[in-house]
Design a protein that fits this description.
Helix content is about 35%, strand content about 10%. The protein has 18 helices and 13 strands. Helix 3 (about 65-80) runs antiparallel to helix 4 (about 95-110), helix 12 (about 355-380) crosses helix 15 and helix 12 packs across helix 16. It has helices at about 15, 50-60, 65-80, 95-110, 150-155, 170-175, 205-210, 230-235, 270-280, 290-295, 325-340, 355-380, 390-400, 400-405, 410-415, 425-450, 480-485, 510-525; strands at about 85-90, 120, 160-165, 185, 190, 220-225, 240, 260-265, 315, 345, 455, 490-495, 500-505. It has an eleven-stranded mixed sheet with strand order 1-3-2-6-8-7-12-13-11-9-10. Strand 12 (about 490-495) and strand 13 form a beta hairpin. With about 550 residues, it is α/β, with parallel strands linked by helices.
């Protein structure tokens, strides 16, 4: 069934059963190249939020129907079938939330573009409901946060159905120097829906796999450095890492108060823009958001523009190329597309060396992680077995077989050795990180060349999941925007051996409208995204 035909089919009753994979079908789990795509076409896999809203408006289906269909899809694709393991927990209240929102729609009309739309959120974002908030750790399985994260409150106010929570790289991938992305003690290993033996990257691993496979209309991830844009790239998604301060961090398990943010991960720029508008806004509990209502927007859909590349001055950072010849060839082709569509490319632009920035950024993270995590854990209820980072280190040692079967907690140990945020070493590192990423980095380059955005390959293709050696990142461009706290958007650019690769656009603080305009123009011109095929392993006959 084609994507748009779905909107003409009522999802009530027996039609719902067809929304997931056909019952009785089994994938090739033993290896080989057999695609999981022998299954009947999946109605929810590429349907957009706008199309879902049209179906809700016309009465073709209800939000309750839609929620039921996604829950069935999670059961048959994520828990069974190819076994993506992207969803760590479904919301037992999702159906009731959807029913109430259906009644409200009938009585008052929709609240906005997310009314009745099922969304998954990372298990890093607090909800004091019947779901846990654990960062993937068994230590927090029974711990109850005191209140919703502010971002969750914004989603609820927008009328979204919180469908469940997604698996992640445990503690947002800030536990070990040899970690495997997408693995957590509580959730196990998430698998890439394009090629199942490949990694999802992280730390928003489950959000990436779930959104790519159509287990939700869109998902929310979090990023400190690369944790939205990298899993978006390797899972064939649009990811928006907002300006730090556009989306509140209150109630999100922290790494860095300088760099942390939540953001959308979706199959289209429009879907990501719709979710971003719902998330954005000032929060008195997060000082960084004090300008969000003035410099941000509640409606990022208005910045979509199919001609968004025309006249845009975009700097190409060649220092982020060269880590993979096929990625280079793919991005070169996309740059030619951009020029053909009216973009003005300044190629190359020089960017400061990343080694010095990376060292300063890491020092900042170690200090801020200890301070932020201690504050978060101290605010949990009495049932929490850990209250400090030191408690957590001891907990992991006592449960080494469950929490550290493949890799350790070297980063925890390094962070625990750090002092308070008044230490000169921390203040010097923070000053250096901001200077290199902002004043002498993104701002300097964009001022020099009069640019609207900077562009580079987001990441390499997904690597084989390896619990022995850990992750095998080949390259990426996330650090400058992450350290600066500036916005970064990745858009699907094509494939290398059937594995998605994204193109990044990033720029000045609060430049989300410009980046969304450029990204939407690129997306509409190239239409590079294709749905996942659930291959058992890479088909090397098709590079």
């Amino acid at each position: 069934m084609k994507r748009r035909e779905f909107l003409n089919v009522g999802l009530a009753g027996s039609a719902l059963a067809a929304a997931g994979v056909a019952r009785g079908s089994t994938p090739d789990r033993a290896g080989g190249r057999g695609p999981f795509s022998d299954f009947p076409p999946l109605k929810l896999d590429e349907t957009t939020i706008a199309e879902l809203q049209e179906g809700l408006r016309t009465g073709a289906f209800t939000s309750h129907d839609l929620t039921e269909a996604y829950l069935r899809r999670i059961e048959e694709i994520d828990k069974g079938g190819p076994g993506l393991n992207a969803v760590i927990e479904v919301n037992p209240d999702a159906r009731e939330i959807a029913r109430i929102l259906d009644e409200e729609r009938a009585a008052k009309g929709p609240r906005g573009p997310l009314h009745g739309i099922p969304i998954l959120i990372k298990d890093h974002i607090a909800t004091p409901d019947r779901m846990a908030t654990t960062a993937g750790s068994l230590a927090l399985e029974k711990a109850l946060p005191p209140e919703d994260a502010f971002a969750v409150r914004k989603l609820r106010e927008a009328g979204a159905v919180l469908l469940g929570k997604t698996n992640l790289s445990e503690w947002a991938n800030f536990r070990s120097t040899r970690s495997t992305s997408g693995w957590s003690g509580r959730g196990g290993q998430t698998r890439n829906p394009y090629v199942l033996d490949r990694n999802t990257s992280g730390s928003s691993s489950g959000s990436g796999a779930a959104a790519a496979a159509g287990l939700c209309a869109a998902a929310v991830g979090t990023e400190t450095d690369g944790s939205i844009v990298s899993p978006s790239s390797v899972n064939g998604l649009v990811g928006i890492k907002p300006t730090v301060g556009l989306v509140s961090r209150s109630g999100i398990i922290p790494i860095s108060r300088t760099q942390d943010t939540a953001g959308p991960m979706a199959r289209t720029v429009a879907d990501a823009a719709a979710v971003l508008g719902a998330l954005a806004g000032a929060d008195s509990g997060d000082e960084a958001t004090r300008e969000a209502d003035v410099r941000g927007s509640r409606d990022y859909l208005k910045f979509l523009d199919p001609e968004g590349l025309r006249g845009a001055r975009i700097g190409v950072i060649r220092s982020f190329f060269g880590f993979h010849d096929r990625v280079d060839a793919l991005i070169e082709a996309r740059l030619e597309d951009m020029k053909r569509l009216g973009a003005i490319l300044v190629d190359p632009v020089e960017f400061p060396s990343g080694r010095e920035l990376g060292s300063a950024e890491f020092e900042v993270m170690l200090y801020e992680f200890k301070a932020g995590l201690n504050a978060y854990l101290a605010g949990l209820g009495p049932e929490a077995p850990v209250r400090t980072l030191k408690d957590l280190i001891d907990y992991n040692e006592r449960r080494r077989g469950l929490e550290m079967p493949y890799f350790g907690q070297e980063l925890f140990l390094q962070a625990e050795e750090k002092g308070p945020l008044t230490d000169a070493a921390y203040l010097d590192a923070l000053k250096k990180s901001l200077r290199l990423s902002r004043t002498e980095g993104i701002d300097a380059v964009m001022d020099k060349h009069g640019l609207d955005a900077l562009a580079a390959p987001t990441d390499g293709p997904a690597w084989l999941t390896d619990w022995i050696n850990g992750d095998h990142f080949s390259g990426g461009c996330s650090t400058p925007a992450a350290a600066a706290g500036y916005p970064h958007v990745t858009v699907p650019a094509g494939f290398v051996f059937g594995l998605p690769v994204g193109l990044s656009f990033f720029g000045r603080a609060w430049s989300e409208p410009v980046l969304i305009r450029i990204a939407s123009g690129f997306e509409q011109a190239t239409k590079a995204r294709k749905p996942p095929r659930f291959l058992a392993t890479v088909d090397f006959r098709n590079p």
